[in-house]
Amino acid sequence: MADSSKSTPEEALALLKRGAAEVIPEEELLEKLKEGRPLTVKLGADPTRPDLHLGHAVVLRKMRQFQELGHKVVLIIGDFTGMIGDPSGRSKTRPPLSLEETRENAKSYVEQAGKILRQEPHLFELRYNSEWLEGLTFKEVVRLTSLMTVAQMLEREDFKKRYEEGVPISLHEFLYPFAQAYDSVAIRADVEMGGTDQKFNLLVGREVQRAYGQPPQVCFLMPLLVGLDGREKMSKSLDNYIGLTEPPEVMFKKLMRVPDPLLKDYFLLLTDFTEEEVETLLKEAGPVGAHRVLARLLTYAYSLPQIPPRLDRALYESLGYAFTAWGRDKEAGPEVVRKAEERYDEVARGGIPEDLPTVRIPQAELKEGRIWVARLFTLAGLTPSNAEARRLIANRGLRMDGEVITDPFLEVDLSRPRVLQRGRDRFVRVELEP
Fold first, then answer.
1. At how many degrees (to 10) do helices 286-303 and 263-270 cross?
2. Is 236 labeled as ligand-binding?
3. Which stretch carries the motif 'KMSKS' region (predicted)?
């Protein structure tokens, strides 16, 4: 990516706008870029869960673009606001977390964000909003809340929907946008990043900054990445996610499961391919080939300690791959991707991978050297309960040593290791404890 000293403000704006859902207001961002100083670009994150996924990467990669242009990003960990719970996009009150829980989750959050964000001190700063929110006086809270009316708060779509449906709204949820806005005051943010579901909160930040005598921040909104279910935004709680730190074979497999209608969005939001290149790829290689390109590129990028600044066609071809001839270049590419792709293809053909996790079954679980098959799958971690194992057996969803299990009362001899399989791609090798 170009350095800010080599890009005009207009060129920088054009680069930053690519893939953005909305910039409010765009002309103010251009004026800030013309000032010729490093901007303070803010992202607030409540670590309600400890792991990041590719949905988070959409915003983090845009922040990386700001960094490559010479601007400083400030990642604000909402250890204090996490105790309130962001109501954005929620149909009911979010359960609050303790300060200790948010800080514990934040450890892996910050580490994983480093896979995308550069860490040099002039380009990156990490802050916790308990620094300034924990010490706010009640007088200051009253001043903040006086800046908006109840009617304005109820204009917010999620609040409006809950109010109309009679779903309770706790008063503390009204405080969340003010707390997030005060973060912008505390660090004098020039730009605040967020998904489209954060628009209300970011706009409140502009008003609060004005009230505190600061120039209002630009609201930079990125689209939400739809998850693997093809319906909801990517979320770990919905199990439709692709984690940033998943093993390469898992990331490759999940990327091959992206619904065909979402392929174009995944390319445009998670890579630097141009729209024309994506259209060409989909036309000439088809959905299967496009899946391969996406899986190879992202599996490689996220196997590195930090992803490259540009995930584009040039990077893909530098790995030894042909852009649209994916079927003829399976032996090319980095070893980490080649192994992940080979494993995926082996499973797709109905084979059993060689590198399987091993679970040792305690001798005490056996009776006369045998164990009930449902109990075996549960001990192996492939089913949550014996009842679920029986249900899957009835639906021909479990295999042992490559053969479908049809007898729910089968007793298994564990005198030798066995390979258990759930569905097409979940495998475990089981053997007796010595």
1. 30
2. yes
3. 233-237
Question: pLDDT tens-digit profile of 96-134?
Answer: 667 777 777 777 888 899 999 999 999 999 999 999 999
**Structural tokens at position 413:** 């001899």
Instruction: Give how far Cα 341 sits from Cα of 242, 285, 323, 348, Å.
Output: 16, 17, 16, 10
Same domain, 203 and 169: yes
Same domain as 344, residue 362 = no
CA 331 – CA 142 distance, rounded (Å)? 65
The whole domain housing 373 covers 358-432
| pLDDT, position 353 | 75
Domain presence at residue 255: yes
Cis, peptide link before residue 25, omega less than 30° from 0: yes
- Block residue for tokens 């040593």: 401
Give the mean model confidence (pLDDT) for residues 286-302.
95
Number of H helices, E strands in the chain: 18, 13
CA separation for the pair 154, 150 (Å, rounded) = 6
Q: Which residues contact 384 (CB under 8 A, 6 or more apart)?
A: 378
d(CA 60, CA 112): 11
pTM across the whole model: 0.80
Is the domain of 338 the same as that of 378? Answer: no
pLDDT mean over 62-88: 85
